[in-house]
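Moderator note: this is an archived Q&A kept for reference. The question asked for a predicted structure of one protein chain; the sequence and the answer are reproduced below.
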Amino acid sequence: MSVEEKKAWLRESATFSRPVIAEIQRAANTGIYDIRGFGAKRQLPTFDDLVFLGASMSRYPLEGYRERCATNVTLGTRFAKKPVELKIPITIAGMSFGALSAPAKEALGRGASAVGTSTTTGDGGMTPEEREHSEILVYQLLPSRYGMNPDDLRKADALEVVVGQGAKPGGGGMLLGQKISQRVAEMRDLPEGIDQRSACRHPDWTGPDDLAIKIQELREITDWEKPVHIKIGASRTYFDTMLAIKSGADVIVLDGMQGGTAATQDVFIEHVGIPTMPAVRLAVEALKEMDLHRKVQLIVSGGIRSGADVAKALALGADAVSIGTAALIALGDNSPEYEKEYNQLGTSAGYYDDYQEGKDPAGISTQYDELAERFDPVKGGRRLANYLRVLTLETQTLARACGKSHVHNLEPEDLVALTIEAAAMAKVPLAGTDWIPGSNKP
């Protein structure tokens, strides 16, 4: 048999594929684990596995040009004196100054404010540019407490206590030395240019009873005005949601494993947590069990890309969604405009995920001034606002097709699943049947 004939019979191992072999070789050569940004890249059940049952005879759709479909949402109605009023049910997730450049943070504020929604600080504190250009700003309180001070807490419109993140439930954040510029170091009270790893749990509490005391302190600092969110990574979602409610949360922020990160171990991103779709259903079950669904609001994040994703999350019981990776792409991250420079980094537009290196040609996930100066925050903000408007219009279109006058009127009954896995996870019928896998109904 010739060499060419032998090649025709080659079979790639499903267990030891070429990417797996390459990773074994990389680990053997370097002796360190792989770090990257972005979110899970493995194939997971997503909202694409669900479809809507549009109105026809049994229900009537709304006429888009004449009949209103509202999109507003109020967050923090449980305890806060000043709940947050958003015009759309789509918010910007926490992404730190440090992970992102100052112009990128400004652009996020500009884009969100243009459509009447909120941004979130992320780790490392609040920048003046962020506060100035964000009409509604949520201040994150993470285990690291980097940059935290009572004055910034009072300047915020809401607070978000981060217990976990979808990309790495149970793990802390990472910021490598090349991204700790003088300004980042001063804000975080860290040495310039030295690798930093945030703690994975808060230093002053170990459970929901302690967290309740911490939330009480935050309310007193802010005169009970600000809504307090608790962010959890999707893992033991049903019980974590209940405990967050018990601790006194006004809002639950639930981040599925498709959620992105600036930097963590690849093994965390791909092998910890559960997908966003089943996590939503579990959180809603917990809220209903406690008779607090719609009274404690639920924000869902992790792989939200389109108005269809937004509408499906709302139909499963969420009050709003949050976007991070999609927002960066809207700003210009992974743009083909910089294809040659991505190639020089050993990657390509659409594949770039080494946010931890700080070499982003688009000037978004960097602290190098010469790169950050490439990014125009006004133009970036305009692009983000356009994207948020499209998401909102798509969500309204689907809601109207189901005969709904408000996007919050979407419900599980409007959905069916295309796969057995999705039907079981979301607890909606398999399309063409009344069968929900795992239910007692035959």
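Archived answer notes: The chain has a mean pLDDT of 94.
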